[in-house]
Amino acid sequence: MDTSFSAEDIAFRDEVRSFFAEAYDDELRARLATPATFKDALIEWQKRLFKKGWIAPGWPPEFGGTGWNATQKFIYETERSAAAVQDVLPFGLQMVGPVIYTFGTDEQKQRFLPRILASEDWWCQGYSEPDSGSDLASLKTRAVLDGDHYVVNGAKIWTTYAQYADWIFCLVRTSTEGKKQQGISFLLIDMRSPGIKVNPIVSIDGKHSLNEVEFNDVRVPVANRIGEQDQGWTYAKALLAHERTAIAAVADTQRKLREVRQFATIEVNAGERLIDNPMFQKRLSDIEIELMALEFTELRVLASVASGGAPGAESSLLKIKGTELQQAVQELRMDIAAHYQGLLPSELSSEQIGHSFANDARLDYMYGRAATIYGGSNEIQKNIIAKAVLGL
Amino acid sequence: MNFEFSEEQTMLRDSVARFIQDNYDFDTRRTIAESANAINSNYWQTFAELGWLSLPFDEAYGGFSGNAVDTMLLMEEFGKGLVLEPFLATVILFGGMLQKSGDAALQEQWIPKIIDGSCQGALAATERQSRYEFTDIATTAKPDGDSYVLNGEKVVVLNGFNADQLIVSARTAGEQSDSRGISLFLLAADSAGVERLGYRMMDGQLVANLVFKNVSVPASQLLGELHGGYGLLKSTLLDAKLALSAEAVGVMEALNAKTLEYTKTRKQFGVPIGSFQALQHRMVDTFMACEQTRSLLYRAVCAVTDQKEEAEAEVHALAVMVARAGKLIGSEATQLHGGMGLTDELDVTHYAKRLMMINATFGNGDYHQAKFNALRYSA
Ligand SMILES: Cc1cc2nc3c(=O)[nH]c(=O)nc-3n(C[C@H](O)[C@H](O)[C@H](O)COP(=O)(O)OP(=O)(O)OC[C@H]3O[C@@H](n4cnc5c(N)ncnc54)[C@H](O)[C@@H]3O)c2cc1C
Questions:
Q1: Which of A192, B230, B235, B347 shows its CA 20 to 30 Å from the CA of A233?
Q2: Which of B66, B117, B69, B123 is nearest to B97 (CA)?
Q3: Between B203, B339, B361, which is nearest A157 by CB?
């Protein structure tokens, strides 16, 4: 047991820190925070990371990964969160990329991976359907073979950023024989294909990131299928565990907790700083203690992955605890905003209104409700742990 | 002992329920929330015609002389419909304070206008720095001949943007958080030197910051005693928290009913999700939370109606329960709706937002728990 950093680790940490300080400038921050410029700003940031060679820490070096060890990955993630640097979009880099380099043909790798790394294509994830959420394997979007094309019909829902996407990776039904998990195929579909329609869904925070995507006789070349026909579930499952580990966002939550602490030193209630109030201190330390534990749980999972294990059911633990703690911090931040909580954006400045973070707290809190739902809801994660870990 | 409502009370409740049923479907509510003033003035007139705006006022002024039970029944139904019209601000806060002040001249002038719907009011008590501590007042009122001159700012004033008349808490003596030295003034919202900045909150309310720059108010507009506004302010805000808690129970009940219905109809894995025991237990928890809150509501309402000594502590206890149950019920409703629970289109998310906002209005759970502790456990 040794969790201290070596001199090399510390040098690496300093390098990461100074890169973020330089490359992630205030102008970029401002553009990322503005809906109208968000997309271009994010692509620009990803291109800067690509140039630096740090766009895909999780990928094997031969496909463009960094070759970092587990400690370096941990340091990178911690520094990224501490500096409040936006994570890259997961859909290409963390979701479909690994599926392509693991299960794709050489031609698919050459065609898609460089463009994913360089952020030339914006990807979205087409799994969920109106009637197939938790029970994803019951999905009904049909793909019927017609010569060297599939003809796709059906609808996907909750598709994040489909409105910006160039490509969508989809699970589709190619057979209704046998178990529902069999008969699913993994297709890469060009969003400019005729027959695709994207309908916006406004979410609880008043923003537009969610969509419904309709497919009407969309023709998809068979060459865009990953792996074997009817075997798509196997490929998708392999990637879900990675998705869950990413959702835990321990380092991000630690930063937000530090922010909350900072706010609580400024807020004063009847002459007493909030941070000095015993009731508030208890709420804060309840969260902090859980988070201290989770940080080490995450390290244990990372270490076991580094020594050859795949993140399995432990990733469910990370997801459940990680998202619960995210929400606890979001709730605390709302409480600190007190009578200002629930503030919507307006033409007035925050100086006129008299509060600096209430609107951000609301956005974070509201969208934060999703974290216990997407990536497999927390109830489903508990079912997984009960079955896979506890043997129930 | 009985928990029955009188015939009159049942009629009142049914008439509010019917109004909401007929006039306040979710799309209509959305249209109201998004309109310039975030209220429907025709509805406000209807409230007046139905007698609702006269509920707590003395018969001498044309009021109904209702009690806390009447207010509770009305607010609970308002909660079920997520009603936006400013009953709380006008009738409970502005009107309630006027009624308690014992100032016959001002009562005679304004209560009939509240009752006929021609005057909307607001209580401007909260400041930037005050959080939930209503004694933390930096706004000043300085004597100037027969008048007072107001300077300062109030924030997040409920109905502050639409109100015709305001009651403003100001410091006339003492230090910033002293309970002595608070005075209350009634003035027209369009008085010279009053600036209003309206903005919207996530539960559809249009609130305002009010800036007072050398606003001159005649001494006759002083409500209650000079320096002695604390008691009036405290008891009015407790009434408001009680009314908000009744509204919260209505919201909780509606939310639980909607979620229960959803878990019975939404199918995954070939069965309704309500058939999963893991979810059944959570539905039971939210059901129990609502029932427990209702019990405390009745308890506090009885204590207030009977003017019991413990009434104050009971309202604090209720507010703690409303905070706790509200958070549970709101977040469970969202979670059990899955992706649907994250959409703006679904009414469920708006009920959940209202519960959060109720908790943040006039003291959250922690605030009221500290007050409760102080009353119960401090010497
Ligand atoms: C903000 C957001 C972004 C998303 N982005 C994407 C995306 O980009 N691409 C994509 O494909 N999908 C996306 N999703 C969809 C997400 O994966 C689904 O919402 C999720 O799988 C849940 O499915 P559902 O919404 O149909 O809920 P349901 O499956 O209907 O679940 C409703 C409730 O029942 C519970 N439940 C269901 N089954 C069980 C059980 N067996 N035991 C106990 N409880 C159960 C659930 O936990 C939930 O609380 C996104 C969702 C959200 C909210």
A1: A192
A2: B123
A3: B339
Name A199's bridge partners. A212
User: CA–CA separation, B270 vs A363, rounded Å?
Assistant: 35
CB A235 within 8 A of CB A179: no
| B336: nearest CA partner in chain A | A373
Q: Whose CA is nearest to atom 17 of ligand 1?
A: A374
Condensed to tens digits (0 to 9), the pLDDT of residues B22-53 reads 999 999 999 999 999 999 999 999 999 999 99
**CA-based nearest residue to A175, from A132, A195, A145:** A145
So what's the architecture of B231-377 in CATH? Up-down Bundle (1.20)
Identical topology for domains A7-88 and A248-388: no
Using the beta-carbon criterion (under 8 Å), do A270 and B338 form an inter-chain contact? Answer: no
Per-window interface: B 312-351 vs A, CB < 8 A:
327, 331, 334-335, 338-339, 341-345, 349
As a whole number of angstroms, the distance between CA A208 and CA A159 comes to 11
> A168 to chain B, minimum CA–CA distance in Å?
19
- Going by pLDDT thresholds of 50, 70 and 90, the confidence category of residue A76 is very high
A338/B132 CB distance under 8 A: yes
pLDDT above 90 coverage of chain B, percent = 99
Average pLDDT over residues A33-46: 93
Residues B57, B51 contacting (CB under 8 angstroms) = no
Q: Do A285 and A277 meet the contact criterion of CB atoms below 8 Å apart?
A: no
Reported confidence tier of residue A58, pLDDT bands at 50, 70, 90: confident
Residue labelled with tokens 């609130």: B207
pLDDT tens digits for range A41-52: 999 999 999 999
Classify domain A7-88 by CATH number.
Answer: 1.10.540.10
Q: Report domain extents, chain B.
A: 7-119, 122-227, 231-377
Ligand 1 pocket test: pick from A123, A198, A202, A377 the residue with the most ligand atoms within 8 Å of its Cβ: A377
- pLDDT score for A241: 62
CA distances from A336 to A360, B124, B328 (A): 12, 21, 19
Active site residues of A: 243
Task: Just give the CATH number of A248-388.
Answer: 1.20.140.10
Tell me the C-alpha distance between A184 and A234, whole Å.
Answer: 9
Contact A100, A108 (CB under 8 A): yes
Cβ(A41)–Cβ(A32) under 8 Å?
A: yes
User: Residue B124: which of B174, B162, B171, B159 has the closest Cα?
Assistant: B159
Q: What is the arithmetic mean of pLDDT over B311-319? A: 97
A328 close to A364: Cβ distance less than 8 angstroms: no
Q: Which residues in chain B are contacts of A128 at CB distance < 8 A? A: 339
* Architecture label for domain B7-119: Orthogonal Bundle (1.10)
Q: Which residue has a Cα nearest atom 44 of ligand 1?
A: A379
Which phi and psi (to 5°) does residue A123 adopt?
A: -105, 155
Query: Nearest chain B Cα to A373, which residue?
Result: B338
Ligand 1: distance of its center to the CA of A374 in Å? 5
Residues of B in contact with A202 (CB under 8 A): 343-345
| Runs of H (alpha helix) within chain A | 7-23, 26-33, 35-52, 70-82, 90, 97-103, 106-117, 232-248, 250-266, 278-306, 314-336, 350-353, 358-368, 378-384
Domain ranges, ordered by start, for chain A: 7-88, 123-231, 248-388
**Fold classified for B122-227:** Butyryl-CoA Dehydrogenase, subunit A; domain 2 (2.40.110)
Instruction: Chain B: give the shortest CA distance to residue A5, in Å.
Output: 40
Over residues B150-155, the mean pLDDT reads: 98
- Name every chain B residue with its beta carbon within 8 A of the beta carbon of A360: none
Helices marked H in A55-118: 70-82, 90, 97-103, 106-117
Tell me whether 0.90 is exceeded by the ipTM: yes
Cα B369 to averaged position of ligand 1 atoms, centre (Å): 36
Which of the 8 DSSP states describes residue A184?
E
Chain A residues closer than 8 Å to B34 by CB:
none
